[in-house]
Design brief:
single chain; mainly beta; Coagulation Factor XIII, Chain A, domain 1; 2 domains; 5-stranded antiparallel β-sheet; 5-stranded mixed β-sheet; 3 helices; 10 strands; Rho GDP-dissociation inhibitor 1
Length: 167
Amino acid sequence: MCCVLQDDESLRRWKEQLLGGLDVTQVKDHEEPDVKILSLTIVADDRPDIVLEIPESGHPKGPWFSLKEGCKYHLRFTVKVSNDIVCGLRCTNTIWKTGLKVENWKEMIGTFSPQAEPYIHEMPEDTTPSGMFARGSYTAKTRFIDDDNNCHLELNYTFEIHKEWPN
């Protein structure tokens, strides 16, 4: 984006507006934004928040979390951006049960400028499936990708759905 900024005045002004108080020259030497997903939180009304730290490998061991069937919840991501603006950050999620794809969604998170404090993004509310056949173990793949198709994090994990919240 650096070379383009020199030639495009409107793009340079847009970037300055996104950067706020930061000096454009501080970020224009970097080619890629540094995006770190710091944590994922599962927020449900009938229990304390479940804060999941992101493992360095992107592969949590064993079931990463458990959910109660039929519960309403939403996800909260904590995202840190440095070096440069990240454009069009989105989250994709695919879930399988016994090898069959049962859910697939994409959610636009947004465009972010670098700042010292992490950004917090809340996803729309969702409901876990319910019933005897919905209970059990699921496999999922979650990716955070920007408009340039840079994958900033890929998580491969398992989770479980139970009749009640686990203790």
